[in-house]
Amino acid sequence: MKNLFTLLFASILFFAVPEAGAQISVGPGVVFGTDINNIGFSVNGKYDFNEKWSAAPSFTYFLKKDFVNWSALDLDANYQLTQIENIGGLYALGGLNFTFWKIKYEYDYDLGEYGDFAGTLDGTGSDVGLNLGLGLNIPAGEKLAIAPEVRYTLGGANYLRLGVKVMFGL
């Protein structure tokens, strides 16, 4: 599986990078996950193939809550639907999502004359899903854009994410 991802990534770079006029942008973001019920921070990338299509991978780490760490890897494609006058470009997003979770709960109970009851419960897992959503690319300078997004992940882990990212053109 790892070799398949490596081959796919290398193929995309081989065919896409030489294209003249392509633009790459990167930046941080902040999101809120509804069923995760917590805030997360993301690292985002975007590669514009042309004026309509772009590839937009991202990784989001959610803050630990209730002994659980969540993270998400998104491999999305963006399609610009329309240009909104004096605001920016409205785009649809869709793609593959990998949601990872890790739980670690340590307990230590003093049962008085019966002794102590201590231990650790831990586990990890992942779910694969499909992302669907909308975003708005708002130019804030020559090489700077602010992009609020709303996306829903369908699959093993179903949740809505509301967020905003700041993208810097390279």
Give an overview of the whole structure.
By secondary structure, this protein is mostly beta strands. The protein has a domain at 22-98 and 130-169: Porin (Beta Barrel), CATH 2.40.160. Helix content is 9%, strand content 71%. The protein contains 1 helix and 8 strands. The chain has one helix at residues 2-16; strands at residues 23-33, 38-48, 53-62, 68-84, 88-110, 116-141, 144-155, 159-169. The chain has an 8-stranded antiparallel barrel with strand order 1-2-3-4-5-6-7-8. Strand 6 (116-141) and strand 7 form a beta hairpin. The longest helix is centred in the N-terminal third of the chain and has 15 residues, at 2-16. The chain is elongated, with a radius of gyration of 20 Å.
